[in-house]
């Protein structure tokens, strides 16, 4: 039996003055793995940043897997 991954991910966009610009929590139910769920919410939050005309971006995450891949330390298999 294959388990279905359902994850709740939250992101917050804060401006340079420390004010919250956007906060959102999403249920990710179309991911095959937790890492994939992390990427789905990261891509979605980046789309929000682009639409909000964000010029400088700092990403904080508790997912070592995602951070290491973004930095190019770990390579994707696909």
What does this structure look like?
A two-stranded antiparallel ribbon has the order 1-2. The two termini are 24 Å apart. 32% of the residues lie in helices and 28% in strands. It has 2 helices and 2 strands, in the order ββαα. The mean pLDDT is 83. A hairpin with a 5-residue loop joins β1 (5-14) and β2. The chain is α+β, with helices and mostly antiparallel strands and 78 residues long.
Task: Briefly characterize the structure.
With 78 residues, the chain is an alpha+beta fold.
Strand content range? 25-35%
* Cα radius of gyration in angstroms: 14 Å
With strands numbered from the N-terminus, the spatial order across the biggest sheet is 1-2
**What can be said about the biggest beta sheet?**
2 strands, antiparallel
Intertermini distance: 24 Å
Low-confidence stretches: none
Count of DSSP strands:
2
Question: What's the tally of helices?
Answer: 2
Helical content class: 25-40%
Shape: globular
Mean pLDDT: 83
Structural class: alpha+beta
| Secondary-structure element series | EEHH
List descriptors.
78 residues; two-stranded antiparallel ribbon; alpha+beta
Which helices and strands occur, and which strands form pairs?
Layout lengths: L4 E10 L5 E12 L2 H18 L12 H7 L8
Antiparallel strand pairs: 1-2
